[in-house]
Structure formats: structure tokens, C-alpha cells
Write a structure and sequence with these properties.
two-stranded parallel ribbon; 7 helices; 3% strand
Length: 133
């Protein structure tokens, strides 16, 4: 079995996560049946560093983070702070991140006031501006 650092090296060499790399990453991240904070932190860092974000990796990334955050059905202050750091690390909120927050809010059994504040603040952010070409 490869370690997460070996997987990261292979992924960063090719610049994308697809096919076999994604399968191996999934196996490692979900080892033991769930994703812990270490695995979630690793994914966040990898997501920042991958040059070409494929739709398959994007889907896996957001699902894995959601699985981590909602492992206990609720989003508490610590998880809200972690999400805030993850989402605003680049200084902007993109459409995928906004959709992700909506999904979290809809699927959580309970959310704390810190997540509510993060959600409200995030929804006030201007929508992503995309251009053709």
C-alpha cells in the first residue's frame, strides 16, 4: 500500500487526480471506513496544489470533506472554524464551495451558530465571475 505522501508525489507529478490515482487515494483516505481530520487536511492541501482539477476529483473531494464534517451529524464550532479556514484560504468563495455549504446545511442534523454565521457570510459573497475563452 502506498502512503499518502507517495500518492501526493505521484499526483503532483502528473498534475491531476484521475483514474487509478483517484482509486488509490479513495482507498487510503477512507481506510477504516471513515475519513478523519488528518485525511481531510491532506485532501484540502492536495486540492490546493493540484494543477488540473478534474470533475471526478472535485466530486470526490467535496464528498470526502462532507463525510468528514457530517460524521456525527452535526457541525460544531470547531468544524465551522475548520471549514472557514478551508473555504477562505484563497480569499474568495467559488460556486462549488457555495453549493457545498448548501449541501452541508441541508444534510446536517444540527448546525451550531458558528456554522450559521459562516453560511450567512458566505452567501453574501459576490458570485464567481467567469469569462469565456
Amino acid at each position: 500500500m502506498q502512503t499518502l505522501r507517495q500518492i501526493e508525489k505521484d499526483i503532483l507529478t502528473t498534475g491531476k487526480v484521475d483514474g487509478r490515482e483517484l482509486e488509490v487515494l479513495r482507498e487510503q483516505i477512507y481506510r477504516g471506513g471513515k475519513i478523519g481530520r488528518e485525511g481531510a487536511d491532506f485532501l484540502v492541501e492536495l486540492h490546493k496544489r493540484v494543477q488540473h482539477l478534474t470533475p471526478a476529483f472535485e466530486q470526490f473531494f467535496y464528498q470526502a470533506v462532507k463525510d468528514h464534517i457530517l460524521a456525527h451529524g452535526r457541525i460544531d464550532a470547531e468544524e465551522a472554524a475548520w471549514l472557514r479556514q478551508m473555504l477562505f484560504a484563497d480569499g474568495k468563495l467559488d460556486d462549488e464551495e457555495r453549493t457545498f455549504l448548501h449541501q452541508l446545511k441541508g444534510e446536517a442534523e444540527q448546525v451550531g451558530p458558528e456554522f450559521e454565521a459562516l453560511f450567512e457570510e458566505s452567501m453574501k459573497q459576490p458570485p464567481e465571475q467567469r469569462t469565456c475563452g
